[in-house]
Specification:
Chain B: This is histidine kinase. The complex is a heterodimer of chains A (122) and B (890). Chain A is an alpha/beta fold. Chain A contains five helices and five strands. Chain B contains 27 helices and 25 strands. About 10% of the residues of chain B have low confidence. Classes of the chains: A alpha/beta (122), B alpha/beta (890).
Chain lengths: 122, 890
Amino acid sequence: MNTILVVDDNEDSRELVKKILKKQGFEIIEAVDGEDALAKAIAYRPDLILMDISIPKIDGYEVTRRLKSRIDFKDTPIIAFTAHAMRGDQEKALEAGCDGYISKPINVREFPEQIKMYLKGK
Amino acid sequence: MFEFITRKIGNKLLVTFVGILFLVMLIEISFRIYFGLPDRLKIAEAGSKEVMDTIFATIKHPLTVGDSETIHRDLEEIGNKYEKIDVYLCDFNKLISFSTDKKSINKKIDYVIDNEDFSKTINKSFTEEQNEAVFSKVFKVQGKRSLISIFPIKNSPECFHCHGSSRKILGAMIMKTDVEDVYRTVIYQMRRSLILTIFAFVFAAIIVNLFVKKLIKNPLNSLVEATHKFAKGEMVNITGYPKDEIGSLCETFNYMVNEVAKSKMELEKELTRRAKLLEERDELVALLQKANKQLKELDTLKSAFIANMSHELRTPMNAIIGYTDLLLDEVDGPLNEDQKASLKKVAANARHLLQLINDVLDISKIESGKIELRPNEVDLKALIDSIMVTFEPLIAKKGLNFHMHIEKGAEKLYVDEDKTKQILINLISNAVKFTHQGVITLRARISERGLDKEGNPQFVEISVADTGIGIKKEDLDKIFDKFAQADVSTTRQYEGTGLGLSIVRGLVALHKGMVWAESEVGRGSTFYVLLPFKKEVFDAPGPVIEERMAEALAQYFEVPKEVFLEEPSYEGKSVRCWDYTQCGHVNCPEYGCPEKRCWLVLGTHCKGMKIASWPEKVEACRICEVVRDLVLHKEPVMVELKPSEKEKVVVAIDDNPDAIDLIRKYLEKDYKVIGLLSSEEAVNQVKEIKPVAITLDIMMPKKDGWQVLKELKEDEETRDIPVIIVSIIDNKTLAFSLGAADYFVKPLDGHSLLRKIKSIETYCPVKKVFVLERDEKTSKDLISILKETGYDVTATRDSKEAINLVKLQKPDLLIINITDPDSSAFDFLDFIKGSSELKEVPIIALTNKELTEEEKEALNGRIKEIINKALFSEEQLIKELKSSLKKIGG
């Protein structure tokens, strides 16, 4: 069973992801801000992190950078998960060390497949 | 002094005149002095002679008779009568006997007239006989000049009886006349003359001066003065000049001044006009710059605001769409039909809302210049087909018809596929939206606008015509503005943001193309876009402008055409200005201007969205019709069609077999797909297979797709094979920088992939195939296979006929069965070998048996492929042949 850390300050968003992914048999851990995300990532060692970029305290780019600088997170896919859809946002996320990019709103039907792909590519 | 004279002609003349006058008078005086005195003396002398004669006549008789008293008396009388005259009568011994001066009697004459010269003269006249009766000469006696005349008294016969005849001369009568007066008179006269001369001289000088002044100096001075003033820029005329040469000079001067003044006035007028124009332009530029600056600031603020807003809007949309879809998927339990219908409406509206948000985002991206194109060759028909799939249900529902005409040459575009799709979707959806009955027609043709420097077309004109409600003329130019639906009242009837056409314009502008519309209310509208089909459009660093248009503009604005070819820029951004239109529009800044402003130069920025409905530059043109004719009446140049594709191999590299299977399913109709599960050996395998294209996954174990792509592009053998990335992660930037041909994000759109591969694979140069096969069945099979694959096939069973046919056909490929019973096929091969035209044509040899070494030798290595029919079943043979064809064709 794969563990996924969902970082999002929007509760509805988190709930939606949780609902979709739980159905697929994933275990979900939630984090509401950057600090929370760092703490939970280190504590739970998730198999994949869905990282919202605009989050309080420490933004998603920074959290990704910090995690990716650690040896134990080098192979953990971190997927940028954001409602920003401007050109450059994607590049910025990849630059920060994200392994992928899923923009909101998500496609409920394709979302689990996308997550699985990233897990497979791990 | 001299300078004063030499500097003025008047003075020179004056000096010359006066000088000449002075010289003449000087000569005159000299003559007077030189000749005056002798003349007077001569007169005095003559007078003296006469007086002497008279005196002598008077005294002759008394002298003869010796009447001394009478002599004395006579002499006294004479002395009284002539005050200035003294008369002496002396004897041979020079002793004075008689005289008017009594005191001198009995004195020697030498004593009385004390002058050495005189003494000598008198002695001479006594000793030598002189013929002259009277001898006169001026002597100075006692400081006074006196004319002394000597009258010798000759010894005449009357005298003989008293004096005897021994002497010829008895004495002399000497008369002394005081000539001081004569001298004085002469001097007086000289003085008078001198004074007169001086007076005359002064008078003449004054007169000459006056004349010179009046005739020469004054007119010359005024001419000089006028010239000075003229030189300083004052336009003066000379008045009151005489009618002589100077006068005509003055007249000429006046004429010149007037001409200069006239042209100066014209020049000034022109200068003022230009200055005014410049001023106007500067003002306009300043205004535009100011406006532009403000707009830019506003734009930046707005872009940031929109980016934020879009984020804030998309976040709740995520929950709305997500939960609705979950409910619709009955994740939380079954729904009844009413609930389902309601939820579907929620989902549809949420998606529409999302579309609006995306539109806003698009426009802000276009405006802030954050869109970069990835232009590629795109098949227009396939592109439209993929779009029409989504429109077909709606078109069918509304009972409309859709027609598509793509003219020859306009099938291929060189554009960013996604953006072009967006452009066409917007245009077609508008047409569908505003049309209630009738036809929507899409046309594509080579445009005669936007030609390159050689005058070749570069753009395809795509038009979407509908039979809808139409647009009012005055609204036509506003429809491309943001948030502008033609009629406010239509907004309610027709939903939409009014951003669609703005996005279209922005995207078209990025392609260096144009968009415009024609419409008639109630009859329908036609929207035109120009999109490039040549890569060069993007290669040109500067703006695109037609050479001929630039020439026309240059001629009109009297500047070199390079100005229009190279420099059209505004606010640091290049401006293209190659379109023009008939003016007379109410929105035109020159509307109502008495000077007919009949065309406009449309300027569009290459980046961003600064494409006003009305251009930055509006200029009048007299030669609009000329330009229009120049540009419009040109024969469109057709672009050659590429030959049709045939079966090729595509290599799919992916560690997931399902993904390869999916690709195979999409491509199998047109391509043979070879899947490579391991990326480690992929590059070597690709070298062997030589596919026409490669699809490549990124996230693969051991060696990722980036590495494979890099290696493929570094190897000379595989460098030219197009690589299409098919991956779950989206990093187009990296992919394109590494040389990927395109990028597809999973889940994969198979149709697009197929189209892409079709458009980028290298096409086969072989068109015409010639078959020589004796076996009827094999021959038939071959013909059908080849025709199916798209070749032009000619076949024969007779090698002699083959030679004749080949000469005419000039095929690209020969398929020959070389193992016929009579070996005539070798004759045919020999003929081919000897023909200069055909010896390079590749040959596939069919055999019915294994060839001997000899036979192989005879073929001399010219055969590309040898297929032994005996070794294959019929099906295998076809397959083998196909692969051979591929190898040769590729």
